[in-house]
């Protein structure tokens, strides 16, 4: 296993500056490159630890439940909940919901965490590159994406080779697709637990990481 050395002492500053750094990369027209480690920083924990190109901690996921937990929370470096990935109960298909913030903590609040996407695993008897699709649960108002924009994920999670596409209906009636994120093997990494997540300019790094968690959940279930 390739060693990963997080600069945990700098986590608070990194969490505050991630959005600014992504905006700066977007200005330059450059993608944001993150290193994903499929391990928790906590002893006996399961999850993910994500670093930027400077080796600073930017995202983390920590779970203790055995097997595949029904709900996973993506946090920033300070432990603030960014997105919740929850498997849908009593569904005829394999479906997940993605919420803003901590969905469980806000369930009793006057304003519960809003749903952002419904995700469904693609099940086909024929060979296909399509793995999953995210459909908007509400108008997100995200920069650059129409409310009707959906996301398709293609490739192989087991091989750590994925592409995520934003798909929006065009005026002519067809679909316009643009690649917004990719997952690939990290150079010199031994095994599949350390890999690279590359987020294209204009796309939200936290949502790209939520898709990685989603695919991990789908493959574990």
TrEMBL record:
Please report which protein family the annotation says this sequence is part of: Belongs to the LOR family.
Q: What is this protein called?
A: Protein LURP-one-related 8
Going by the entry's taxonomy, the superkingdom of the source organism is recorded as: Eukaryota
Question: What organism is listed for this UniProt entry?
Answer: Lolium multiflorum (Italian ryegrass)
Q: Which residues form a coiled coil?
A: none
Instruction: Name the InterPro entries on file.
Output: LOR, LOR_sf, Tubby-like_C
Q: Give the SUPFAM superfamilies listed for this entry.
A: Tubby C-terminal domain-like
Task: Supply the Pfam families for this chain.
Answer: LOR
Q: Which Gene3D superfamilies match?
A: LURP1-related (2.40.160.200)
